[in-house]
Specification:
Blueprint lengths: L8 E4 L4 E7 L5 H6 L2 E6 L5 H7 L14 E3 L5 E3 L4 E13 L2 E13 L6 E4 L2 E4 L15
The structure holds flavin mononucleotide (FMN).
Flavin mononucleotide binds next to strand 2.
Length: 142
């Protein structure tokens, strides 16, 4: 079971909490709402097809068919080639209108490579680009 989301947000540092919101109409909704743990796989910029796959845009019976994965510490699938992964223990579920807001406690976090992340902007896939800033004044700590 897996779904493409862009609604990921960090929520809290202590405890470390993150959220995703899942449409109540999604076929994944009830299973995710009841899941004890889940992994958030951050796709890299060469993984558009994986995003389309888990958004239900390609016809496959099982979204994981042909996708190479390994098991994380929670047993959740980590997709090969992702930029980073967070594994979460379900912490709370809130009602969010036509979505449910799933808050997870991060129990494991790993950056897996240095690829750029896949970004969805203005209904298109893109990626990030470093911006050039003038050097900050030396008395400012970022
Ligand atoms: C870039 C992108 C971001 C998405 N973000 C979300 C999201 O945050 N929450 C959500 O419920 N659906 C989101 N979707 C849509 C789901 O991926 C899609 O509706 C779902 O996989 C459809 O299949 P299902 O109804 O069988 O679950 C997103 C889709 C794309 C392409």
């Amino acid at each position: 079971m897996g779904i493409t989301v862009s609604s990921f947000t960090s929520v809290s540092l202590e405890p470390p909490l993150v959220l995703v919101s899942i449409a109540k109409g999604s076929a994944m909704h009830d299973a995710l709402k009841g899941a004890r743990s889940y992994a958030v796989n951050f796709l890299a910029d060469d993984q558009k097809s994986v995003s389309d796959r888990f958004a239900g845009r390609t016809q496959t019976k099982d979204r994981f068919e042909g996708i190479k994965t390994s098991d994380g510490v929670t047993g959740c699938p980590i997709i090969e080639g992702v930029r980073a992964v967070l594994e979460c223990r379900a912490w709370q579920v809130y009602d969010g209108g036509d979505h449910s807001i799933l808050i997870g406690e991060v129990v494991a976090a790993r950056a897996l490579n240095s690829k750029r992340p896949l970004v969805y902007y203005s209904q298109q896939y893109t990626t990030t680009e470093a911006m050039e800033y003038p050097a900050p004044p030396s008395d400012i700590v970022w």
